[in-house]
């Protein structure tokens, strides 16, 4: 009932430990927890993924579903093809933490939704927005990104972005056939029809360029990645850097109001997050490759699935 | 499977039920904890084991919050400071209460608590502090009343907390262990385990004035590494559902020495270590 309380002694233990480079769970400052990720777990969605960042079946657990819907062009919209084509909504489930009950999660929800929105809506996102346009100035696809935080153990931003990237990579847009008709007045009219065949659906163009984020948490005079809940409570300030696979920085956000960074520390922090991002990209890729292998094995096994009791916790979800 | 068969079943194995499982339709039985009645039939409302005492049927759940008993040794966190009392989170359904009259004042002097003590309650325990205490009594509403009237009880320092599943910590003669690796472990029956640097009992007694201090002693990198390793060992035991006792922690610790402290929680290594520990526990 008091997950958000920390005694001064614990605070001191964590801060001094980070100063010495050994964290409460034995990790170094730039060590990540174990990452598990699975794609295509919601059949009704166009794309989905679930990720867990933590050890032995516990940790921050995020589920992202993506739904593509057709939006109508309204007069006065900007011509910028990338404006508001992705609608983000993040919700923290009260089952994740007692503090999220009632209206407790509102602030976190808003913060994460806006952050995701800023990261995805715009050319920095990497997705080819032209693909989302069906008929210019008439109809286009809107991607609804809905994330649910199922379990909370620190560092939600990076986990959220990894899950979103995996879900967008998994997304298939239904095929649309556009027909041009000339009506009796000689005006060219365009109509479209959505093809109902899932085989014809196409993946998003530019999905490989979607960035990931690396969030650095400042604790004492040092910064760490991937904090647990207790470490997060000791954090004075945090910096989220989004980096694309090419290693280019696509966005920076400083949050957590308690204090700021020394400007001189920033260049180094950016360099560190660039390096950590490449670590994350490899981790994510490996994990996705592993999970697709597992899926294939499941299919081979058919109905003869027997739970392995000795290592039930290894079954990720 | 019906309750009438339960005697027969009991000889073979326990009757395991899930929420909504029909236990019996016989109207002569009474429903106890963990069950609900609908149309004179009794269903389970939790997943657990069916227990029957004469005509009373109850289900003992597998997973539940900590249920206190008098004499339990626990670790709790202060959540609120009230008049003459502290509210303490003990991983139970409701917060426990620590009365000002049930603590030892600095210096260990036995005397009546005065008004000035009431005014400086936050210098003893304030919100967020961790206490090592014993369950003294129940209140009428089921809340636990704690006390810290012993030199070994009081504020916890020099370490970090691990939260585990309460049922995995068995009640035993001692809940304070100094492990051979130089780490002190306080195993709260409520599932909060405090792992800290070893401080000899004589030093604690000599510094009786400092029992409410908020300062850590110096902890070396070596000691931190050992504490982290013990913490990870306890987490491992919790996740793999092995009883957490001083023996099982020591076995896990010894088995883990071939790996770096941070690697213990890797899935493959953890499964391997758990097998070794289970085998060793079965041998004894």
From TrEMBL, chain A:
Domain Exoribonuclease phosphorolytic: start-end pairs: 33-174, 210-275
The keyword Zinc-finger is annotated on this UniProt entry: no
Pfam families linked to this entry: RNase_PH (PF01138), RNase_PH_C (PF03725)
Chief place of localization: cytoplasm
Protein name listed in UniProt: Ribosomal RNA-processing protein 42
The family this protein is said to belong to: Belongs to the RNase PH family.
Residues annotated as signal peptide: none
UniProt key word DNA-binding: no
Any one Gene Ontology cellular component term annotated for this protein: cytoplasmic exosome (RNase complex)
Region called Disordered, residue ranges: 291-317
Location in the cell: Cytoplasm; Nucleus, Nucleolus
SUPFAM superfamilies in the cross-refs: Ribonuclease PH domain 2-like, Ribosomal protein S5 domain 2-like
GO function terms (MF aspect): mRNA 3'-UTR AU-rich region binding
Bias kind Acidic residues: ranges: 297-306
Source species, domain of life: Eukaryota
Example of a GO biological process term: nuclear polyadenylation-dependent rRNA catabolic process
Keywords of the record: Cytoplasm, Exosome
InterPro entries according to UniProt: ExoRNase_PH_dom1, ExoRNase_PH_dom2, ExoRNase_PH_dom2_sf, Exosome_comp_Rrp42_subfam, PNPase/RNase_PH_dom_sf, Ribosomal_Su5_D2-typ_SF
From TrEMBL, chain B:
Alphabetized Gene3D superfamilies for the sequence: 2.40.50.100, Nucleic acid-binding proteins
Highest taxon, organism lineage: Eukaryota
UniProt KW keywords: Exosome, Nucleus, RNA-binding, rRNA processing
Domain S1 motif stretches: 69-149
GO molecular function, one term: RNA binding
Pfam families the record matches: ECR1_N, KH_6, S1_RRP4
Annotated compartments: Nucleus
Any GO BP: poly(A)-dependent snoRNA 3'-end processing
Stored PANTHER family: EXOSOME COMPLEX COMPONENT RRP4 (PTHR21321:SF4), PNAS-3 RELATED (PTHR21321)
Record protein name field: Exosome complex component rrp4
Organism: Mycoemilia scoparia
Organism ancestry: Eukaryota, Fungi, Fungi incertae sedis, Zoopagomycota, Kickxellomycotina
Name of the gene this protein is made from: rrp4
